[in-house]
Amino acid sequence: MSRSAGRLRVGHGYDAHRLQAGQGVTLGGVWIDCDYGLIAHSDGDVLIHALCDALLGAAGLGDIGRWFPDSDARFARIDSRVLLREVMLQVHAAGLAPLNADLTLIAQVPRVAPHVDLMRARLAEDLGVPPALVNVKATTTEGMGHIGRREGVAAHAVVLLDAAEDPI
Ligand code: MG
């Protein structure tokens, strides 16, 4: 079957969370020991939250707040990979599957470069694609603004979905 533009769906997601003093953060599904913690109803994994919103956006399924409201105690301190896998169930139910994902973390701290390969592996596992098709980038703001002052971190994600070969 030849590819037509009608088969492809692009989505973008953005998220941000506050930082505080702490023992570590979870980003991209990976625990990072550091002197900071994330303030959030869930584990505060901004990379996964941005990825979930990109997936939901591409599938036309709203946003993460609609599926997992922070007023719901079931999602308190939850591992965000659980949310990502639930989003993937919805993506598959819509007859769609990821082709690739590109994520950008914006953070002055912590330093994530040593953890990027493990992030890619874990996110790829949840997305059902090879790690080479999940890119994770990180940048600082060179000290500018609230992220530069280490008050929080943010993330952007872009995903491309394709209509599954055999829609459910
Ligand atoms: Mg969030």
Task: Characterize this entry briefly.
The chain is of the alpha+beta class and 168 residues long. The chain has helices spanning 46-59, 64-67, 80-93, 116-127, 145-148; strands spanning 8-21, 24-27, 30-33, 36-39, 96-106, 134-139, 152-163. Strand 2 (24-27) and strand 3 form a beta hairpin.
Structure report:
Helices cover 29% and strands 33% of the residues. By secondary structure, it is of the alpha+beta class. The protein has a single domain, classed as 2-C-methyl-D-erythritol 2,4-cyclodiphosphate synthase (60s Ribosomal Protein L30, Chain: A), CATH 3.30.1330. The strands form two sheets. A five-stranded mixed beta sheet has the order 4-1-7-5-6. The mean pLDDT is 93. Magnesium ion binds next to strand 1 and helix 1.
List the helices and strands and how they pair.
Elements lengths: L7 E14 L2 E4 L2 E4 L2 E4 L6 H14 L4 H4 L12 H14 L2 E11 L9 H12 L6 E6 L5 H4 L3 E12 L5
Parallel strand pairs: 5-6
Antiparallel strand pairs: 1-4, 1-7, 2-3, 5-7
The site of magnesium ion has 5 residues, from β1 and α1.
Short key terms for the protein model shown above:
168 residues; alpha+beta; 5-stranded mixed beta sheet; two-stranded antiparallel ribbon; 7 strands; globular; binds magnesium ion
What CATH architecture would you give? 2-Layer Sandwich
Task: Examine the coordinates and then state which fold CATH places here, giving the name of the CATH topology.
Answer: 60s Ribosomal Protein L30, Chain: A
Number of individual domains: 1
What is the spatial order of strands in the main beta sheet?
A: 4-1-7-5-6
Q: Kindly state the mean pLDDT as a whole number?
A: 93
How would you sum up the major sheet?
Answer: 5 strands, mixed
Q: State the shape.
A: globular
The value of Rg in angstroms is: 16 Å
Parts with pLDDT < 50 across at least 5 consecutive residues: none
Q: What string gives the helices and strands in order?
A: EEEEHHHEHEHE
Which small molecules are bound? magnesium ion
Number of strands: 7
**DSSP helix count?**
5
Strand content: 25-35%
Helix content: 25-40%
- Superfamily at the CATH H level? 2-C-methyl-D-erythritol 2,4-cyclodiphosphate synthase
